[in-house]
Automatic annotation (TrEMBL):
Keyword Transmembrane helix listed: yes
TPR repeats: 120-153
Pfam family, one: TPR_8
Name this protein carries in UniProt: Tetratricopeptide repeat protein
Sections of the chain in a coiled coil: 326-374
Species this protein is from: Parabacteroides distasonis
TM regions (residue ranges): 302-322
Length: 512
């Protein structure tokens, strides 16, 4: 804030600026804040300083930045000055069409705060822009709007330029009125040279040759090259009308020489301005290319970082999925092993009980043999012994047949497809094939389920099928297109009338 106040004070005391480094501190600071008015003011003063440093393009850029928040800024005096500066910069570049909107906006701002001096100068510049672009009707309207503010300027520039337009339109009486007004506002003889030129032109147009020559001679003393050249031009016309050909030619030569001097000055200024513009464009282009390179490198870094992060996340996802899958397979294997072990222990228990019973019967038979009791009771004991031996043999045969059926099931196409392929969606025929396979392998599995639990739905039966073939929860979800774990818990509760986990349900189906 200090640097903004310091720059503002220096500008008001007409201190010459050597650099824009101080105000740059202020602009950098306010760019990071929401203080829109001070931000606009900082950019405005930076534009003024760069304009003083003969860097019009940089100044223009600063002024345009000062207008970024124009609708939120309520300092109309500041907005008027900013718009006026942009309009004048476009005028100096001879881009009058772009200057006009900014000058009009500057006038609106000054009008809102009743700044008559600001309006006078802006309307004068706006009238000149309209005149150069041959929009004479608009120029007249603007100049006439500015007339009430002309005294505030302390000179007769506005009525003088308005009179010149009316001369070009051939409205001499109106032109004379404004020439008279201009003469009254120009209080010194030296300041009246532009009006003397217009007055000499007026008298020339109205065929008052002597009066024209008188005022043109006065205008000839003007230090302004433009006014001096204009006086020479119209004096040559006067001498031509007076048939003083030699003087007319001499005056015309002087006019040509003066005009050449003006053209050289303008050309030099244009070359200097274009040279600066070219250099500025080169600097901006170099800066732009540098920014593109930095942005490209930043994008590459972001891309590499994104790729690395993506690889890490994918790796973690794959690892997590693998761990979860391994855990599910391990749990399924443990359940199956526990079920098989229970069944094996049960068979062993039955076989042991049968063996013990056989031994008892054998002992009884031996005792009966010793006692020579070979009647009906002995035959009955022999028969019971044989039944138990056959039962044990049947259990062994059933175990072998069941192992064979399970091996055949695991070698079937439908079993392999379900266990090996990802994102399997089973058709109705494939579900029927799986049902048939399980019924053949596990003794009419479906019929026994329906008989034991008549209210079981087909969706629940499908879950039982997939559980029976030891499929993981992840694979079940992919096949069924929904998470089956809640359904398995509910089905267990429905069957056993008590709460149970997914593992409890899996154990039940494995042994069913």
């Amino acid at each position: 804030h200090y640097y903004l106040l310091l720059t503002e004070a220096q500008d008001k005391t007409f201190v010459k600026h050597e650099t824009d480094s101080l105000i740059t501190i202020a602009t950098d600071y306010y760019e990071e804040t929401d203080d829109l008015e001070r931000k606009a003011k900082a950019w405005y003063y930076k534009g003024l300083i760069n304009n003083d440093l003969d860097q019009p393009m940089k100044a223009q850029e600063c002024f345009l930045k000062a207008l970024r928040d124009e609708k939120q800024v309520k300092d109309y005096a500041l907005l008027g000055r900013i718009n006026n500066q942009i309009g004048m910069l476009y005028t100096y570049q001879h881009v009058y069409e772009r200057a006009i909107p900014y000058l009009k906006q500057a006038n609106n701002c000054f009008e809102m705060i009743r700044d008559t001096i600001g309006q006078a100068y802006v309307l004068r510049d706006l009238g000149r822009a309209y005149t150069v672009t041959q929009q004479l009707i608009d120029a007249i309207e603007v100049y006439r709007e500015a007339l009430p503010y002309a005294p505030a300027m302390g000179n007769g520039t506005i009525p003088n330029e308005l009179a010149n337009i009316y001369l070009e339109k051939g409205e001499y009486e109106v032109a004379a009125k404004y020439i008279d007004q201009a003469l009254r506002l120009f209080r010194t003889e030296e300041s009246r040279f532009p009006t003397h030129l217009v007055l000499g032109k007026y008298y020339l147009e109205t065929a008052q040759i002597d009066s024209s020559e008188y005022y043109l001679q006065k205008a000839l003393s003007s230090p302004s090259l433009q006014t001096h050249a204009g006086a020479l031009k119209y004096l040559s016309y006067v001498k031509e009308k007076q048939s003083v050909w030699i003087e007319s030619i001499a005056l015309n030569k002087r006019y040509e020489a003066c005009r050449d001097s003006i053209d050289r000055i303008v050309e030099t200024e244009s070359i200097r301005r274009m040279d600066y513009f070219y250099n500025y464009q080169k600097i901006q282009e170099a800066l732009y290319q540098s920014q593109i390179k930095v942005m490209k490198k930043d994008k590459e870094r972001y891309l590499y970082a994104l790729i690395i992060c993506a690889c890490v996340f994918i790796s973690l996802g794959i690892y997590s999925y693998w761990r979860r899958r391994e855990k599910e397979i391990k749990n399924q294997k443990e359940i199956l092993e526990q079920t098989i072990e229970k069944q094996r222990q049960n068979n062993l228990r039955i076989k042991e009980e049968n063996r013990q019973q056989i031994e008892k019967l054998q002992e009884q038979l031996i005792a009966m043999e010793k006692e020579r009791q070979e009647g009906w009771e002995g035959q009955q004991l022999l028969q019971e012994k044989r039944v138990l031996e056959i039962h044990n043999e049947s259990i062994d045969a059933d175990e072998k047949r069941q192992s064979l059926r399970i091996a055949q099931m695991e070698d079937s196409d439908i079993y392999k497809k379900i266990h090996t392929e990802d994102c399997v969606k089973l058709t109705d025929d494939e579900w029927r094939a799986l049902e048939k396979l399980l019924d053949q392998t596990f003794n009419n599995f479906t019929a026994r389920l329906k008989k034991s639990y008549p209210k079981i739905s087909y969706k629940e039966i499908q879950v039982c099928y997939l559980t029976k073939i030891k499929l993981s929860s992840t694979k079940m979800t992919k096949i069924l297109r929904y998470n089956s774990s809640p359904l398995r818990s509910r089905l267990y509760k429905k069957i056993f009338k008590k709460t149970g986990s997914v593992q409890d349900f899996n154990s039940f189906i494995a042994g069913f």
